[in-house]
Write the structure tokens for this entry.
Amino acid sequence: MLKIDVHTHILPEKLPDFRKLPGGERFVRIEHQKTRSGASGSARMIVNGSVFREIESNSWDVQTRLSECDAAGVGVQILSTVPVMFSYWAEPAPALELARHLNDHIAGVVAAHSSRFAGLGTIPMQSPGLAIRELERCVRELGLAGIEIGSNVNGANLDSPELFPVFEAAATLNAAVFVHPWEMAGRDRMTRYFLPWLVGMPAETSLAICSLIFGGVLERLPRLRIGFAHGGGAFPATIGRIARGFEARPDLCAVSNDVSPREYLRRMYLDSLVHDPLMLRYLVDLMGPDRIALGSDYPFPLGEPRPGALIDSCGFPEKIRARLLHGTALEWLDLPAARFGGVA
């Protein structure tokens, strides 16, 4: 059965030295490590002179990526950049230059292997005008399916009024939006035990979802096709508390939108990356299989080692399994099944 993985990250093998741009000291540098044969087998992402993450060649080498997809039975990957590359902190012009470089790279990979990949671009959200311009280029010129954005923009939640035109443009362009947590709230208290990834990311994703619901963004843009990473983080598990708060304290919760948060469970998409069959079954019961799409966070270690294994372990009927493995992805990203050889 066709597997479409909606949550995968890719980088160019090499990056220009964007640190030379005005205010660019924090831009990521990729430092490659050579193997005995002279090939680049691994690399380090350097931020502010410190190692942010070590990465392997599957982060940039397309043939390695395709081989690993074949071994895991993944037919299609949806490519997006690594969230640290968002660079919302930067001055708008250098941030746009970086975004264009990353988007051109993803579009090139997709064009060379259009039956195996589709792509999501990145945009400089700190400058909504430039962000919209690059969003339009991603969709109209590069043929990307939409954009990946962060869960906040320099601490501003996604319901901030200045960001609304970006979401409005995405809805108008029929562009999918994939929200990925980054720059997690409270990270100053999570300096040990990998807590920013284990606790901060789920909370940050729920914060993004609640902001878009309570802020009225999803209500004002019913055509917006928006999805969230990591199974929606903490949001699905706490929807009861969120809805109860809306009912008990409308004076605090319903100030911008008087529609119950439960009404939006059928208005958003989530990936399946929850690492637990009980939680995945709960998501399917809560939202329906047509709201959940296979996502693995390839090629990073906190992701699903064999994409789709969690879905397969749940014993879903074949119709639901097909929806989770590819049907929801095709709908959310508005991609024709024929591009990938139909579905099987």
Observations:
- The longest strand covers residues 40-47.
- Residues 4-10+80-340 form a domain with the TIM Barrel fold (CATH 3.20.20.140).
